[in-house]
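Budget justification aside, the reviewers requested a transparent look at the raw inputs and outputs of the sequence design task funded under Objective 1. We therefore reproduce one unedited record. The lines immediately below are the structure tokens for a 154-residue chain.
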């Protein structure tokens, strides 16, 4: 499993009261929405883009709901490959989890939702991954320093 997230120095967004602004800034900070993101659809407003609405309206708006990809594609008026592309980014951050739901015919199908149906709980997973990643960087830095020190002594 890969884990990928962008980490930038930031201040808490707690002074902001507008949900859209907080979501947009947060998603940009963690690398889900790249800076200068240009939606490939007809929309010119990033707040009307598929990745923004997928996170805010679908996953954050209904965190306990397991969303089928077909359902998300219809809801956001886009293609399944587009939905999968954005779901995979959120899965790489370990914010989403796979769950099984029954479709209209009673078939069990794979669906996606915010991990544990709660963004705060999901973020605990992200923090754990970050701790491991930073520890591994530390080990690499120490190793690199030792190799450089040994080389200097020769």
């Amino acid at each position: 499993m890969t884990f990928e997230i962008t980490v930038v120095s930031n201040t808490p967004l707690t002074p902001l009261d507008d949900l859209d602004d907080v979501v947009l800034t947060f998603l940009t900070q963690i690398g889900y929405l790249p800076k200068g993101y240009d939606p490939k659809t007809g929309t010119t407003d990033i707040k009307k883009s598929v990745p923004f609405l997928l996170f805010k309206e679908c996953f954050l708006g209904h965190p306990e709901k397991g969303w089928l990809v077909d359902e998300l594609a219809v809801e956001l008026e886009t293609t399944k490959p587009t939905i999968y592309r954005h779901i995979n980014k959120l899965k790489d951050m370990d914010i989403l989890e796979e769950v099984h739901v029954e479709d209209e015919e009673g078939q069990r199908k794979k669906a996606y939702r915010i991990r544990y149906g709660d963004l705060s709980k999901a973020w605990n997973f992200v923090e754990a991954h970050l701790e491991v990643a930073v520890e591994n960087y530390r080990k690499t830095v120490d190793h690199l320093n030792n190799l450089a020190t040994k080389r200097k002594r020769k």
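The longest strand covers residues 96-102. Strands lie at 96-102, 108-114. Computational costs for records of this kind are itemized in the attached budget.
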